[in-house]
Protein backbone atom coordinates (compact mmCIF):
# COMPACT_ATOMS: atom_id res chain seq x y z
CA UNK A 1 0.00 0.00 0.00
CA UNK A 2 1.20 3.56 -0.65
CA UNK A 3 1.24 6.28 1.98
CA UNK A 4 0.61 10.02 1.56
CA UNK A 5 3.47 12.44 2.09
CA UNK A 6 3.44 14.11 5.49
CA UNK A 7 6.26 16.63 5.30
CA UNK A 8 4.01 19.58 6.13
CA UNK A 9 2.24 18.04 9.16
CA UNK A 10 5.54 16.70 10.48
CA UNK A 11 7.23 20.07 10.20
CA UNK A 12 4.30 21.71 11.96
CA UNK A 13 4.49 19.27 14.84
CA UNK A 14 8.26 19.37 15.29
CA UNK A 15 8.70 23.16 15.33
CA UNK A 16 8.20 24.58 18.81
CA UNK A 17 7.28 28.02 17.47
CA UNK A 18 4.45 26.53 15.44
CA UNK A 19 3.15 24.74 18.53
CA UNK A 20 2.98 28.04 20.40
CA UNK A 21 1.43 30.05 17.57
CA UNK A 22 -0.92 27.41 16.10
CA UNK A 23 -1.65 24.78 18.76
CA UNK A 24 -4.97 23.67 17.21
CA UNK A 25 -3.42 23.13 13.78
CA UNK A 26 -0.42 21.39 15.36
CA UNK A 27 -2.71 19.08 17.33
CA UNK A 28 -4.63 18.16 14.18
CA UNK A 29 -1.37 17.51 12.36
CA UNK A 30 -0.15 15.33 15.21
CA UNK A 31 -3.37 13.30 15.11
CA UNK A 32 -2.98 12.80 11.35
CA UNK A 33 0.63 11.76 11.94
CA UNK A 34 -0.43 9.23 14.57
CA UNK A 35 -3.03 7.78 12.18
CA UNK A 36 -0.40 7.56 9.44
CA UNK A 37 2.02 5.76 11.77
CA UNK A 38 -0.69 3.31 12.75
CA UNK A 39 -1.37 2.64 9.06
CA UNK A 40 2.33 1.90 8.55
CA UNK A 41 2.25 -0.52 11.49
CA UNK A 42 -0.77 -2.28 9.98
CA UNK A 43 0.93 -2.59 6.60
CA UNK A 44 4.10 -3.96 8.24
CA UNK A 45 2.06 -6.50 10.18
CA UNK A 46 0.36 -7.63 6.97
CA UNK A 47 3.76 -8.03 5.32
CA UNK A 48 5.12 -10.04 8.26
CA UNK A 49 2.08 -12.30 8.07
CA UNK A 50 2.51 -12.82 4.32
CA UNK A 51 6.17 -13.80 4.76
CA UNK A 52 5.49 -15.98 7.83
CA UNK A 53 7.62 -13.72 10.06
CA UNK A 54 5.11 -12.79 12.75
CA UNK A 55 7.64 -13.84 15.41
CA UNK A 56 9.13 -10.35 14.91
CA UNK A 57 5.89 -8.98 16.36
CA UNK A 58 6.32 -10.51 19.82
CA UNK A 59 5.83 -8.22 22.86
CA UNK A 60 8.84 -6.15 23.85
CA UNK A 61 9.94 -2.75 25.21
CA UNK A 62 7.92 -0.84 22.57
CA UNK A 63 4.72 -2.92 22.47
CA UNK A 64 2.71 -4.95 24.91
CA UNK A 65 0.79 -8.14 24.32
CA UNK A 66 -2.36 -6.03 23.91
CA UNK A 67 -0.63 -3.96 21.24
CA UNK A 68 0.26 -7.12 19.33
CA UNK A 69 -3.31 -8.41 19.57
CA UNK A 70 -4.64 -5.08 18.31
CA UNK A 71 -2.21 -4.99 15.37
CA UNK A 72 -3.25 -8.49 14.32
CA UNK A 73 -6.94 -7.50 14.50
CA UNK A 74 -6.33 -4.35 12.46
CA UNK A 75 -4.21 -6.13 9.87
CA UNK A 76 -6.86 -8.82 9.44
CA UNK A 77 -9.74 -6.39 8.95
CA UNK A 78 -7.64 -4.08 6.75
CA UNK A 79 -7.09 -7.02 4.39
CA UNK A 80 -10.85 -7.47 4.19
CA UNK A 81 -11.61 -3.75 3.99
CA UNK A 82 -8.61 -2.07 2.28
CA UNK A 83 -10.49 1.21 2.03
CA UNK A 84 -10.24 1.58 5.79
CA UNK A 85 -6.46 1.11 5.70
CA UNK A 86 -6.19 3.88 3.10
CA UNK A 87 -8.47 6.15 5.13
CA UNK A 88 -6.32 5.55 8.22
CA UNK A 89 -3.18 6.52 6.30
CA UNK A 90 -4.87 9.76 5.20
CA UNK A 91 -5.99 10.56 8.75
CA UNK A 92 -9.67 10.41 7.80
CA UNK A 93 -10.29 7.84 10.55
CA UNK A 94 -8.41 6.68 13.63
CA UNK A 95 -7.14 3.27 14.69
CA UNK A 96 -10.07 3.18 17.13
CA UNK A 97 -12.48 3.20 14.17
CA UNK A 98 -10.55 0.31 12.61
CA UNK A 99 -10.72 -1.57 15.90
CA UNK A 100 -14.48 -1.15 16.14
CA UNK A 101 -14.82 -2.63 12.64
CA UNK A 102 -12.41 -5.45 13.45
CA UNK A 103 -14.34 -6.49 16.56
CA UNK A 104 -17.65 -6.43 14.70
CA UNK A 105 -16.31 -8.42 11.75
CA UNK A 106 -14.91 -11.09 14.08
CA UNK A 107 -18.30 -11.62 15.69
CA UNK A 108 -20.16 -12.10 12.40
CA UNK A 109 -20.49 -15.34 10.47
CA UNK A 110 -19.24 -15.33 6.84
CA UNK A 111 -22.55 -14.45 5.15
CA UNK A 112 -23.45 -11.38 7.27
CA UNK A 113 -19.78 -10.35 7.28
CA UNK A 114 -19.74 -10.24 3.48
CA UNK A 115 -22.98 -8.23 3.53
CA UNK A 116 -21.50 -5.71 5.95
CA UNK A 117 -18.24 -5.24 4.01
CA UNK A 118 -19.92 -5.15 0.60
CA UNK A 119 -20.68 -1.44 1.02
CA UNK A 120 -17.36 -0.09 2.31
CA UNK A 121 -18.11 3.35 0.93
CA UNK A 122 -21.10 3.76 3.22
CA UNK A 123 -19.18 2.43 6.21
CA UNK A 124 -16.29 4.82 5.53
CA UNK A 125 -18.68 7.74 5.20
CA UNK A 126 -20.16 7.00 8.62
CA UNK A 127 -16.73 6.43 10.20
CA UNK A 128 -15.22 9.65 8.83
CA UNK A 129 -18.11 11.73 10.18
CA UNK A 130 -18.37 10.07 13.61
CA UNK A 131 -16.33 9.42 16.71
CA UNK A 132 -15.14 5.86 17.18
CA UNK A 133 -17.81 5.35 19.87
CA UNK A 134 -20.53 6.57 17.54
CA UNK A 135 -19.19 4.35 14.76
CA UNK A 136 -19.20 1.42 17.18
CA UNK A 137 -22.87 2.02 17.98
CA UNK A 138 -23.66 2.18 14.26
CA UNK A 139 -21.85 -1.11 13.68
CA UNK A 140 -23.69 -2.80 16.53
CA UNK A 141 -26.99 -1.75 14.98
CA UNK A 142 -25.83 -3.19 11.66
CA UNK A 143 -24.69 -6.33 13.42
CA UNK A 144 -28.08 -6.80 15.02
CA UNK A 145 -29.75 -6.22 11.66
CA UNK A 146 -27.52 -8.71 9.83
CA UNK A 147 -26.60 -11.27 12.41
CA UNK A 148 -29.31 -12.12 14.89
CA UNK A 149 -29.41 -15.74 13.77
CA UNK A 150 -25.62 -15.78 13.31
CA UNK A 151 -25.27 -14.51 16.87
CA UNK A 152 -27.13 -17.54 18.21
CA UNK A 153 -24.89 -19.81 16.14
CA UNK A 154 -21.83 -18.09 17.64
CA UNK A 155 -23.16 -18.59 21.17
CA UNK A 156 -23.73 -22.27 20.47
CA UNK A 157 -20.14 -22.57 19.23
CA UNK A 158 -18.89 -20.81 22.37
CA UNK A 159 -20.92 -23.16 24.57
CA UNK A 160 -19.27 -26.15 22.88
CA UNK A 161 -15.86 -24.61 23.65
CA UNK A 162 -16.33 -24.48 27.45
CA UNK A 163 -13.25 -25.98 29.13
CA UNK A 164 -11.49 -26.30 32.49
CA UNK A 165 -7.73 -26.84 32.29
CA UNK A 166 -5.33 -27.35 35.19
CA UNK A 167 -1.61 -27.67 35.76
CA UNK A 168 0.84 -27.58 38.67
CA UNK A 169 3.29 -24.68 38.84
CA UNK A 170 6.66 -26.38 39.32
CA UNK A 171 8.25 -23.38 41.06
CA UNK A 172 5.54 -22.65 43.62
CA UNK A 173 3.90 -26.07 43.84
CA UNK A 174 0.50 -24.37 43.48
CA UNK A 175 -2.26 -25.88 41.39
CA UNK A 176 -3.49 -23.46 38.68
CA UNK A 177 -6.87 -23.62 36.93
CA UNK A 178 -7.94 -21.94 33.69
CA UNK A 179 -11.71 -21.81 33.21
CA UNK A 180 -13.06 -20.89 29.74
CA UNK A 181 -16.77 -20.05 29.67
CA UNK A 182 -19.21 -18.91 27.02
CA UNK A 183 -20.60 -15.39 27.68
CA UNK A 184 -23.96 -16.58 29.03
CA UNK A 185 -22.38 -19.05 31.46
CA UNK A 186 -19.82 -16.39 32.46
CA UNK A 187 -22.58 -13.95 33.44
CA UNK A 188 -24.29 -16.55 35.64
CA UNK A 189 -20.95 -17.64 37.14
CA UNK A 190 -19.86 -14.08 37.94
CA UNK A 191 -23.20 -13.20 39.54
CA UNK A 192 -23.06 -16.32 41.70
CA UNK A 193 -19.44 -15.63 42.67
CA UNK A 194 -20.05 -11.95 43.47
CA UNK A 195 -23.04 -12.91 45.62
CA UNK A 196 -20.92 -15.46 47.48
CA UNK A 197 -18.15 -12.92 48.16
CA UNK A 198 -20.71 -10.48 49.55
CA UNK A 199 -22.48 -13.11 51.67
CA UNK A 200 -19.30 -14.64 53.08
CA UNK A 201 -16.97 -11.70 53.54
CA UNK A 202 -19.09 -8.56 53.91
CA UNK A 203 -18.28 -8.22 57.62
CA UNK A 204 -14.88 -9.89 57.90
CA UNK A 205 -12.23 -11.32 55.58
CA UNK A 206 -10.57 -14.69 56.27
CA UNK A 207 -7.14 -14.91 57.84
CA UNK A 208 -4.25 -14.10 55.52
CA UNK A 209 -6.25 -11.70 53.34
CA UNK A 210 -3.83 -9.29 51.54
CA UNK A 211 -4.03 -5.53 52.08
CA UNK A 212 -3.50 -4.65 48.40
CA UNK A 213 -6.90 -4.01 46.76
CA UNK A 214 -6.29 -6.16 43.66
CA UNK A 215 -4.73 -9.02 45.61
CA UNK A 216 -7.52 -8.82 48.21
CA UNK A 217 -10.17 -9.05 45.50
CA UNK A 218 -8.56 -12.12 43.92
CA UNK A 219 -8.04 -13.76 47.34
CA UNK A 220 -11.70 -13.34 48.36
CA UNK A 221 -13.01 -14.62 45.02
CA UNK A 222 -10.80 -17.72 45.25
CA UNK A 223 -12.01 -18.50 48.76
CA UNK A 224 -15.63 -17.85 47.77
CA UNK A 225 -15.24 -20.28 44.86
CA UNK A 226 -13.86 -22.92 47.21
CA UNK A 227 -16.84 -22.45 49.53
CA UNK A 228 -19.22 -22.72 46.59
CA UNK A 229 -17.57 -26.00 45.58
CA UNK A 230 -18.29 -27.25 49.11
CA UNK A 231 -21.94 -26.26 48.89
CA UNK A 232 -21.64 -23.00 50.83
CA UNK A 233 -21.73 -19.34 49.84
CA UNK A 234 -25.39 -18.58 50.34
CA UNK A 235 -28.11 -18.32 47.71
CA UNK A 236 -27.60 -16.03 44.72
CA UNK A 237 -31.29 -15.41 44.05
CA UNK A 238 -32.66 -14.38 40.66
CA UNK A 239 -30.13 -12.78 38.28
CA UNK A 240 -30.78 -9.15 37.36
CA UNK A 241 -30.48 -7.81 33.81
CA UNK A 242 -30.60 -4.06 33.15
CA UNK A 243 -32.04 -2.81 29.86
CA UNK A 244 -30.77 0.72 29.22
CA UNK A 245 -32.94 2.90 26.96
CA UNK A 246 -30.85 5.90 25.85
CA UNK A 247 -33.09 8.70 24.56
CA UNK A 248 -30.11 10.92 23.65
CA UNK A 249 -30.04 9.34 20.19
CA UNK A 250 -33.63 8.65 19.02
CA UNK A 251 -32.34 6.09 16.52
CA UNK A 252 -30.49 3.96 19.05
CA UNK A 253 -31.82 0.63 20.24
CA UNK A 254 -32.04 -0.39 23.92
CA UNK A 255 -28.84 -1.98 25.22
CA UNK A 256 -28.62 -4.86 27.66
CA UNK A 257 -26.23 -4.71 30.62
CA UNK A 258 -25.13 -8.26 31.36
CA UNK A 259 -22.71 -7.09 34.05
CA UNK A 260 -19.65 -8.21 32.05
CA UNK A 261 -17.91 -7.02 28.85
CA UNK A 262 -19.44 -9.82 26.76
CA UNK A 263 -21.59 -10.09 23.64
CA UNK A 264 -24.79 -12.14 24.07
CA UNK A 265 -27.55 -12.33 21.41
CA UNK A 266 -30.64 -10.35 22.41
CA UNK A 267 -32.78 -13.41 21.68
CA UNK A 268 -31.36 -14.95 24.85
CA UNK A 269 -33.15 -12.22 26.80
CA UNK A 270 -36.50 -13.79 25.92
CA UNK A 271 -35.32 -17.15 27.27
CA UNK A 272 -34.27 -15.52 30.56
CA UNK A 273 -37.41 -13.41 30.99
CA UNK A 274 -39.03 -15.82 33.45
CA UNK A 275 -35.81 -16.70 35.30
CA UNK A 276 -34.32 -13.20 35.74
CA UNK A 277 -35.37 -9.76 36.94
CA UNK A 278 -35.33 -7.54 33.81
CA UNK A 279 -35.14 -3.87 34.84
CA UNK A 280 -35.55 -0.90 32.42
CA UNK A 281 -33.55 2.29 33.03
CA UNK A 282 -34.12 5.37 30.83
CA UNK A 283 -31.25 7.84 30.41
CA UNK A 284 -30.48 10.97 28.39
CA UNK A 285 -27.06 12.64 28.07
CA UNK A 286 -25.76 10.41 30.83
CA UNK A 287 -28.47 11.38 33.35
CA UNK A 288 -31.13 8.96 34.60
CA UNK A 289 -34.65 10.02 33.65
CA UNK A 290 -36.36 6.94 35.04
CA UNK A 291 -35.36 3.97 37.14
CA UNK A 292 -37.56 1.86 39.40
CA UNK A 293 -37.34 2.31 43.16
CA UNK A 294 -36.51 5.16 45.54
CA UNK A 295 -33.51 7.19 44.30
CA UNK A 296 -33.58 10.05 46.82
CA UNK A 297 -33.01 8.88 50.40
CA UNK A 298 -31.70 12.17 51.81
CA UNK A 299 -30.36 11.83 55.36
CA UNK A 300 -32.49 8.83 56.29
CA UNK A 301 -29.70 6.32 55.64
CA UNK A 302 -25.99 6.37 54.76
CA UNK A 303 -25.94 3.29 52.52
CA UNK A 304 -27.16 3.39 48.91
CA UNK A 305 -30.11 1.11 48.28
CA UNK A 306 -30.49 -1.43 45.48
CA UNK A 307 -32.42 0.97 43.23
CA UNK A 308 -29.65 3.59 43.46
CA UNK A 309 -26.94 1.02 42.71
CA UNK A 310 -28.98 -0.15 39.73
CA UNK A 311 -29.31 3.40 38.36
CA UNK A 312 -25.60 4.09 38.86
CA UNK A 313 -24.74 0.81 37.14
CA UNK A 314 -26.73 2.00 34.10
CA UNK A 315 -24.50 5.12 33.92
CA UNK A 316 -21.10 3.72 34.90
CA UNK A 317 -19.59 0.48 33.72
CA UNK A 318 -16.46 1.09 35.85
CA UNK A 319 -15.09 3.25 38.64
CA UNK A 320 -16.00 6.91 38.02
CA UNK A 321 -12.36 8.11 38.10
CA UNK A 322 -11.07 8.75 34.55
CA UNK A 323 -9.09 5.84 33.12
CA UNK A 324 -9.93 3.35 35.89
CA UNK A 325 -11.14 -0.01 34.54
CA UNK A 326 -12.32 -1.63 37.81
CA UNK A 327 -15.80 -2.97 37.10
CA UNK A 328 -18.81 -1.38 38.77
CA UNK A 329 -19.61 -4.60 40.64
CA UNK A 330 -16.32 -4.25 42.51
CA UNK A 331 -16.74 -0.57 43.43
CA UNK A 332 -18.03 1.14 46.56
CA UNK A 333 -20.75 3.79 46.37
CA UNK A 334 -19.19 7.08 47.51
CA UNK A 335 -20.88 10.27 48.74
CA UNK A 336 -19.29 13.15 46.79
CA UNK A 337 -20.29 15.46 49.65
CA UNK A 338 -19.32 13.19 52.50
CA UNK A 339 -22.03 11.82 54.78
CA UNK A 340 -20.19 13.17 57.85
CA UNK A 341 -20.24 16.63 56.25
CA UNK A 342 -23.99 16.60 55.73
CA UNK A 343 -24.02 14.86 52.35
CA UNK A 344 -27.26 13.22 51.24
CA UNK A 345 -27.80 9.69 50.00
CA UNK A 346 -29.33 10.97 46.77
CA UNK A 347 -28.42 9.81 43.27
CA UNK A 348 -27.02 13.28 42.46
CA UNK A 349 -24.43 12.86 45.26
CA UNK A 350 -23.30 9.28 44.55
CA UNK A 351 -20.58 7.83 42.32
CA UNK A 352 -18.92 4.39 42.18
CA UNK A 353 -15.27 4.29 43.29
CA UNK A 354 -12.89 1.35 43.37
CA UNK A 355 -11.08 0.54 46.62
CA UNK A 356 -7.88 2.31 45.55
CA UNK A 357 -9.54 5.57 44.50
CA UNK A 358 -11.92 5.48 47.47
CA UNK A 359 -8.81 5.38 49.66
CA UNK A 360 -7.28 8.33 47.76
CA UNK A 361 -10.41 10.39 48.43
CA UNK A 362 -10.71 9.56 52.13
CA UNK A 363 -7.05 9.39 53.15
CA UNK A 364 -4.95 11.19 50.53
CA UNK A 365 -6.84 14.47 50.11
CA UNK A 366 -8.41 13.95 46.69
CA UNK A 367 -11.37 16.30 46.19
CA UNK A 368 -14.37 15.47 43.97
CA UNK A 369 -17.07 17.73 42.56
CA UNK A 370 -20.11 16.38 40.68
CA UNK A 371 -22.15 18.81 38.57
CA UNK A 372 -25.84 18.50 37.68
CA UNK A 373 -25.00 16.81 34.33
CA UNK A 374 -22.72 14.39 36.23
CA UNK A 375 -19.50 15.97 35.00
CA UNK A 376 -16.97 14.82 37.59
CA UNK A 377 -14.02 17.06 38.52
CA UNK A 378 -11.11 15.48 40.41
CA UNK A 379 -8.54 17.67 42.22
CA UNK A 380 -5.44 16.12 43.77
CA UNK A 381 -3.24 17.68 46.51
CA UNK A 382 -0.42 18.40 44.01
CA UNK A 383 -2.73 20.76 42.09
CA UNK A 384 -3.67 18.50 39.22
CA UNK A 385 -7.25 18.73 37.96
CA UNK A 386 -9.09 16.20 35.82
CA UNK A 387 -12.61 16.53 34.48
CA UNK A 388 -14.63 13.77 32.90
CA UNK A 389 -17.41 14.19 30.40
CA UNK A 390 -20.87 13.33 31.77
CA UNK A 391 -21.39 9.70 32.72
CA UNK A 392 -22.31 7.66 29.67
CA UNK A 393 -24.78 4.78 29.60
CA UNK A 394 -23.93 1.39 28.15
CA UNK A 395 -25.03 2.34 24.65
CA UNK A 396 -22.46 5.14 24.55
CA UNK A 397 -19.58 3.38 26.24
CA UNK A 398 -19.51 0.08 24.43
CA UNK A 399 -20.22 -3.17 26.19
CA UNK A 400 -20.87 -2.71 29.88
CA UNK A 401 -18.78 -4.43 32.46
Helices, by number, come to 15
Counting helices, strands and paired strands, the structural category is alpha+beta
- Helix proportion range: 40-55%
| Quaternary class | single chain
Structure overview:
With 401 residues, the chain is of the alpha+beta class. The protein has three domains: 7-147, no CATH class; 181-229, no CATH class; 240-397, no CATH class. Helices cover 48% and strands 13% of the residues. The chain has 15 helices and eleven strands. It has helices spanning 7-14, 16-21, 23-50, 65-80, 82-90, 95-107, 110-117, 120-128, 132-160, 183-201, 213-229, 267-272, 306-315, 355-363, 394-397; strands at residues 163-168, 175-180, 240-246, 255-257, 277-284, 287-290, 332-335, 350-353, 367-370, 376-379, 385-387. It has a four-stranded mixed β-sheet with strand order 4-3-5-6, covered by helices on one side. Strands 9-10-11 form a three-stranded antiparallel β-sheet, with no helix packed on it. It has a two-stranded antiparallel sheet with strand order 1-2. Helix 3 crosses helix 4 and helix 4 packs across helix 6 (95-107). The longest helix is centred in the middle third of the chain and has 29 residues, at 132-160. The two termini are 38 Å apart.
In short:
With 401 residues, the protein is of the alpha+beta class. It is built from 15 helices and 11 strands.
Amino acid sequence: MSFPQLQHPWSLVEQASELEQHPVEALQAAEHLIAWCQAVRVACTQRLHATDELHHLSPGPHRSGRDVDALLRWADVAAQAPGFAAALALGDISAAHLDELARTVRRLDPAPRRSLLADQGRLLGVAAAATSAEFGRFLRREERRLGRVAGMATLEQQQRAVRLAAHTDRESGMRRYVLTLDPLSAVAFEQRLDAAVEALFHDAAPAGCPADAVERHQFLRAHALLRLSEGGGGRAGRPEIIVVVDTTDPGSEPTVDWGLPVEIPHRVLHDLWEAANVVPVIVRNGVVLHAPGELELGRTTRLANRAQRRALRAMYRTCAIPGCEVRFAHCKIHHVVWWRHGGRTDLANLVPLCHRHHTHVHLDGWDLHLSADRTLTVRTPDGRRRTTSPALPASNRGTRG
